[in-house]
Amino acid sequence: MNPSHCVRMGQIDYTNVWPVFHYFDSSNLSEPVEQIIKVPAVLNQMMLSGSLDIAPISSFAYGVGEEELLILPNLSVSSDGSVHSILLFTREPLEQIVNGRFALTNTSATSINLLKIILEKALKGTPSYWDSAPDLEQMMKNSDGALLIGDHAIRASWTDHGYIVTDLGEFWKRWTGYGMTFALWTVTKTFAENHPRMVDEVVQAFEESRRRSKQNMEPVIQRSIQVIGGTESYWRHYFNHLRHDFSAKEQAGLALYFRYAYEMGLLRKEVQLNIWSDNKLTRVKE
């Protein structure tokens, strides 16, 4: 690697990635790293434009940029049922408003398209959508439902607003039998081809951070209370329901999501899960 090169690394500005990043110390890597902390929508665009080398991004964004990206192994933000931070708020039961108007958070892509798959494919609705900043009351003023993700969804779930709350991870699991992967750690193919040793270092560092967090989640829980609020019991339950690996089980659920997205025209082509491995491409077959 050119000594003057600084690895451009993204970090999602949500608590759901903290277990993977908590013990990750870029100063221990052999090359300098610039970390850019943004919401998923911004990181998605930066990664797809080549402005970043490595970043966790929305799973859907990987589907869009598959030809230029590789998935880092054993890392994701997934759930096997309820995720507690991908939430749809409605006044009426979802089945009664499938042809209604829905406000979409402007901070992610995976969850937006998951909602479209649920409303249009699972429930056979013909809804309309509009994009909004993540402000629940503003979103609901002229909508039948509002989608929030990440810490915005978590905070809204603590409020006594009277809305019905549908957890999209739980709905997906009940409908398909699979868990759902909301974000993936990715690297550009160009960077991976030119700097395989650095990619290997980064993967090992993230996996070690994830392992240490899983052994003792208390520091992440306390940080969440300090930054976001809430109780120790809430955050313990929340992190215990998240998955941060990317096993065959998670891969199968994401492959189904991509297939549905392609069938509905949300993706322009079928998507393969191309996973980086020691500078050799591992392609996961459905």
TrEMBL record:
<dbReference type="InterPro" id="IPR003773">
    <property type="entry name" value="Menaquinone_biosynth"/>
</dbReference>
<dbReference type="Pfam" id="PF02621">
    <property type="entry name" value="VitK2_biosynth"/>
</dbReference>
<keyword id="KW-0474">Menaquinone biosynthesis</keyword>
<dbReference type="GO" id="GO:0016829">
    <property type="term" value="F:lyase activity"/>
</dbReference>
<comment type="similarity">
    <text>Belongs to the MqnA/MqnD family. MqnA subfamily.</text>
</comment>
<comment type="function">
    <text>Catalyzes the dehydration of chorismate into 3-[(1-carboxyvinyl)oxy]benzoate, a step in the biosynthesis of menaquinone (MK, vitamin K2).</text>
</comment>
<comment type="pathway">
    <text>Quinol/quinone metabolism; menaquinone biosynthesis.</text>
</comment>
<keyword id="KW-0456">Lyase</keyword>
<protein>
    <recommendedName>
        <fullName>Chorismate dehydratase</fullName>
        <ecNumber>4.2.1.151</ecNumber>
    </recommendedName>
</protein>
<dbReference type="InterPro" id="IPR030868">
    <property type="entry name" value="MqnA"/>
</dbReference>
